[in-house]
């Protein structure tokens, strides 16, 4: 009898542990953490995202383009050359371009203005690497996006409208998956709670181990337009910056994990 009880207890405990395991696998944040640890062990401490940061730093500091200039004088909102924590305050309005810009768009602006590249010469892969480098200097800082200027408020409102807009062949919008269906799953992944979970908007740009690529928020948003069956807005365009502004403002107060490592 004692043995039987013992077995039963072991079985119940075992099932309980399995349940916990299944739950952990459900949580993409925990799953990403596990993968990150595994990769770190295999690679002797170097993550793929570190390589992008390194490459981005080289690109940022090198004298390049027709003007043979580096990007070190680029102003990301805290003054030329000041990079620390800037990601937590983007997108924001810039007086020199008279536009609200996000990280990607600001990098592009400086490649054009400081280095003299023509827009069609700018390689997306370089912008992404530079974004990784700048993001790494905002790691563990606080997300603090707060639309105050009229131009920022206007774009925030556009972002909010786009977020709730339902359109396309499926008559869906961002909110269909990321508000209504939160907790349900898309294939293996649960839909992220973009407005409630402050972890979500504060880890971009990120390396996605599930497709082995470096993505900024713009890449993420464009892929989600494909989820909607709709054509994605162009890189550096107003809809992308507006949605980023809206989502980053929701994440105000979050501690940033940059660059992110996600599924
Ligand atoms: C059909 C469902 C669907 C729609 C509609 C959708 N998404 Fe997503 N979204 C997903 C899924 C699934 C993931 C996570 C899976 C992945 O990363 O592959 C995701 C991930 C994201 C993430 C990253 C979350 C994280 O944890 O880092 C952001 C940001 C995002 N979506 C924004 C948007 C925006 C903005 C829109 C509207 C333009 C949108 N999504 C529309 C399904 C959707």
UniProtKB/TrEMBL annotation:
Residues at the active site: 224
SUPFAM superfamilies reported in the protein's UniProt record: Cytochrome c
Reactions that this protein is recorded to catalyse: L-cysteinyl-[SoxY protein] + thiosulfate + 2 Fe(III)-[cytochrome c] = S-sulfosulfanyl-L-cysteinyl-[SoxY protein] + 2 Fe(II)-[cytochrome c] + 2 H(+); S-sulfanyl-L-cysteinyl-[SoxY protein] + thiosulfate + 2 Fe(III)-[cytochrome c] = S-(2-sulfodisulfanyl)-L-cysteinyl-[SoxY protein] + 2 Fe(II)-[cytochrome c] + 2 H(+)
Family annotation (Pfam families): SoxA-TsdA_cyt-c (PF21342)
Cofactor note: Binds 2 heme groups per subunit.
List of residues binding heme c 1: 74, 110
Compartments (UniProt record): Periplasm
Chain ranges of the Cytochrome c domain: 154-263
Name of protein: SoxAX cytochrome complex subunit A
Organism: Meiothermus luteus
């Amino acid at each position: 009898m004692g043995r039987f009880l013992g077995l039963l207890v072991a079985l119940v405990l075992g099932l309980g542990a399995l349940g916990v395991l299944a739950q952990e696998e459900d949580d993409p944040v925990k799953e990403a953490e596990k993968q990150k640890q595994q990769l770190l062990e295999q690679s002797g401490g170097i993550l793929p995202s570190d390589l992008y940061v390194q490459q981005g730093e080289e690109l940022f500091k090198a004298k390049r383009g027709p003007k043979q200039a580096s990007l070190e004088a680029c102003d990301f909102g805290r003054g030329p050359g000041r990079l620390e924590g800037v990601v937590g305050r983007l997108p924001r309005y810039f007086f020199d371009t008279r536009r609200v810009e996000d990280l990607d768009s600001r990098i592009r602006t400086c490649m054009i203005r400081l280095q003299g590249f023509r827009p069609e010469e700018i390689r997306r892969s370089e912008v992404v690497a530079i974004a990784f480098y700048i993001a790494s200097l905002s790691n563990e800082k606080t997300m603090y996006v707060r639309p105050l200027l009229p131009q920022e408020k206007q774009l925030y409102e556009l972002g909010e409208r786009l977020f709730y807009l339902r359109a396309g062949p499926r008559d869906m919008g961002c909110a269909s998956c990321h508000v209504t269906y939160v907790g349900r799953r898309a294939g293996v992944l649960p839909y992220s709670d973009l407005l409630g979970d402050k972890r979500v908007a504060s880890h971009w740009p990120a390396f996605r181990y599930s497709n082995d690529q470096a993505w900024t928020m713009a890449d993420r948003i464009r892929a989600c337009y494909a989820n909607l069956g709709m054509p994605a807005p162009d890189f550096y365009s107003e809809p992308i910056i507006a949605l980023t502004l809206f989502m980053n403002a929701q994440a105000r107060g979050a501690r940033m994990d940059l660059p992110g490592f996600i599924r």
